[in-house]
Amino acid sequence: GGLSDPLDPTTCGDQDGDGCDDCSNYDGTNDGFGPQPDFMENANGKFLNDGPDDDNDGLCNAGDNDTDNDGVDDEKDEYPTDRFRCRDLDADGCDDCSSGYDRREADGADTDGDELCNNGDEDDDNDGVDDVDDNEPLNPFACKDDDGDGCDDCSSGRFDQANDGPDADGDGACDTNDPDNDGDGIPDDEDPQPNNPFVCGDSDGDFCDDCAITGGPAEPANDGNDFDGDGQCDLGDFDDDNDGVADFLDFDPFDPNVQEAPPAGQGIPGLGGLQIDAVIPFPPLLPVPVCGFGLAIGMPAIVLGIFGMKRRVRRNRKQGKKAA
Fold first, then answer.
1. From CA 69, how far away is CA 84, in angstroms rounded?
2. Residues whose CB is less than 8 angstroms from the CB of residue 70 and which lie 6 or more positions away in sequence, other chains included
3. 90 near 104, Cβ under 8 Å?
4. What is the reported pLDDT for 298?
5. Taking a C-beta distance cutoff of 8 angstroms, is the pair 192, 203 a contact?
6. Is the four-CA dihedral 251, 252, 258, 264 of positive or negative sign?
């Protein structure tokens, strides 16, 4: 470690090969031979006091290809002594070294992770709507409502007016502001099940939903099986075969030619051959069968039969008034 020029205490050689003389910063108190020689090495074997070292890497600036240690050689670095600035190769408006090192994928806030910083990204949230037209440019689930249906066109995470919210009837208008969600022709505020096209109400009171068959529009005359074609579905028609006898008293409610009970000892249609023990007359109704179950079957039949006949009388009166 002798001096290269015995008469000049600021020169002693360049043992670490960084382009700076190891004694270049001699301060007049150290001649290079004392207990703290000017070319004292750091932990990496580099000399600490041989010239300016902006990045503190043990290499003086004169011999350091990357003065600011930002990963970009000085000859390509627009700011060779500033580690937070170097260049913008991806032209996204953010310096590639803004993180302190050359990392284009981390050169600024990048909401959508597309490696373009928000500053230079026309669509920061990547929802398909440019920031200038996006009401919430950093939220992929919100942008605008061009179709005016009350649902944000980006609620799916991408601009899609046909997929901007639940749409029960598939008419392109989300349910939020659709007056008829299920498209059955009945407004939601009047529809008992606004998202079910096969349920809309029973306007004719025949116990069958007016949309049960059609799924909308409502058709009271076509809302269920109607054996006698009288406009009332069988479920709510107390005389399905329209023979003048209530179904509860009719031994074959789907045959207009059969009303009377069969002779004692014969099976009852529809009851698996159940035998009749006796027939009790109950004017003005037809005779009511009393079977092995006794009045447990007879009395309900009587009550329901009366109710059915009253209902038929009311219906006939209404029809008579209409005809008049």
1. 10
2. 77, 82, 83, 84, 86, 97, 100, 101, 102
3. yes
4. 47
5. no
6. negative
